[in-house]
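your task:
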Amino acid sequence: MTQPAGWYDDPQDASQLRYWDGVVWSEHVSPKISPTVGQSTIGLPYGVIPASARPQSSGSQGAQGAPTVQDGYGSPQRGQGEPGGRSPYGQSPGQQDLGWQSHPATTPDGVVLSGWWKRVLARILDGIIIGIVALPLTFAPMKQAANIFGDYIQQVMTATQAGSTTMPVQPTAQLTGPIMQASLITLALYLVYEITFLTRTGATIGRMVVGISVRLRDKAGPPPLVAVLKRTLVKEGGNLFGSVPVLGTLASLFGMLDSLWPLWDDEKQAIHDKVAATNVVVGPQPKRDT
């Protein structure tokens, strides 16, 4: 919003006025004495009574009895007035009076909701933690899968060197078992990790690092077990069907939709949040009353 053109307090010299042309400050200045400024409403918010029509007091008159221009209208709008987007005089007239403020989404009791990127970063950190913890338990099945795949590559190379036109059959069935085993171990660890931390503190380690936590939408504190089970099973249930041809594809699509849902949801909830009536908020949760 641009302030109307007119004479305003000079932001560099309080004893004079400077002309604002509606876009940038001009070089035209004048002593802070004007026989018409008292009748002018230029530079004043809509509905403000001109200075000449207000009750006069001993401190409201300037030199030669002329009312002084209201304070707070002497800074030009940022981004105008010089190359590079900076004005030599500051903000535009009246910009400070506009009181622009962002209004972040909150829970019903006023706690600010987490942004989407914080949720993603927390999920990545938690995934790294679970991967490290699961490594000893998944080493055996992953080694078995690596050996099967290595044997297949060796067979392909041997067939190629021999000039055979028949390639070995891909070991898809043999790989499914050990990969599924490793996936289920990792998923089980994640479920235990997620459920334990959320019911105790409302935040996993990844969420603690990022500075967010999970709570019921209408009540502060770590969410109860039932709510945590609902949100976790909806969020991670698709991983159980990851290896099933058709169900795996549908589950992956649902998981993607679920993770993106907070981007357009007014209450910043994913689908699993809606099922469990939870919100991810900024800051930690208070301890549950016992």
User: Anything to note?
Assistant: The helical segments are 95-98, 116-161, 172-200, 205-210, 225-236, 245-260, 271-276. The first helix runs from residue 95 to 98.
